[in-house]
Specification:
CATH class: Mainly Alpha
Number of strands: 0
Strand content: under 5%
Structural class: mainly alpha
Shape: elongated
CATH superfamily: F1F0 ATP synthase subunit C
Order of helices and strands: HH
Distance between the termini: 11 Å
Mean pLDDT: 91
């Protein structure tokens, strides 16, 4: 029982940490490409900015879904038999 709880705690930590690292790398790459595109064609900044914010929301949504799954495992653990 204790081993299962410990492994679930480790898995929750990995889910959140890897999700946070992936989301931050994705947003950083996207922001860099946005600045490159705006530097090349400044007249498209409004359209590109809208697309960038939508994409940033999708990247953050994937991370938040991972956090929700980790919380599910932490508090309503399906691996522990009642």
């Amino acid at each position: 029982m204790e081993l299962t709880l410990g492994l679930v705690a480790l898995a929750c930590g990995l889910i959140v940490s890897v999700g946070a690292i992936g989301a931050s790398i994705g947003i950083a790459i996207m922001g860099g490409k946005f600045f490159e595109a705006v530097a090349r064609q400044p007249e498209l900044m409004g359209e590109l900015q809208t697309k960038m914010f939508v994409l940033a929301g999708m990247i953050d949504a994937a991370f938040i879904i991972g956090v929700a799954i980790a919380l599910l495992f932490a508090f309503a653990n399906p691996f522990v038999l009642a």
